[in-house]
Amino acid sequence: MSNVKPVVFVVDDESVIAHTLSIILNQAGFDASAYDHPAKAIAARDERTPDLLISDVMMPDMTGVELAINFREAHPNCRVLLFSGQASTADLLEEARAQGYDFDLLSKPVHPADLLAKLRN
User: What is the pLDDT of residues 42-84, one digit of tens each?
Assistant: First the structure.
């Protein structure tokens, strides 16, 4: 059995959310890192291969959907979980599906138990 922890990137422009989720994930046995800007996650992605990207959808400069597509193009096996508190997210997800990308979505606020349950199935 492997002791390698899944590498998780958590991206949210609200730094407190990104860091809180990464702490929860680290306590649950993941190797999670928090990023408060998509560009920081992209830079880190070139140094560490993520198994999972968890990202807010609505962020300045780049949406979580754009970030997810960027990650998936660089690492096709990277799982993506997006979360959002805004109804407009559905349109962005439809655009991604039209391009051949299908991402899981959780509603904000994200409850830790819901997040962990989603990751375990």
Answer: 999 988 999 999 999 989 899 999 999 999 999 999 999 998 8
What is the pTM (predicted TM-score) of this model?
0.89
Report how far residue 55's alpha carbon sits from residue 12's, in angstroms, rounded to the nearest whole number. 6
Which residue, chain included where needed, has tokens 């193009």? 73
For the chain, the first-to-last Cα distance in angstroms comes to 19
**CA dihedral sign, ordered 52, 61, 46, 90:** positive
Question: Which residue segment(s) compose the domain that 14 sits in?
Answer: 7-119
Q: What are phi and psi of 17, to 5 degrees?
A: -65, -45
CB of 47 within 8 A of CB of 53?
Answer: no
In order of 49, 61, 72, the CA distances from 106 in angstroms are: 23, 21, 19
Domain with 73 in it: what CATH number?
3.40.50.2300
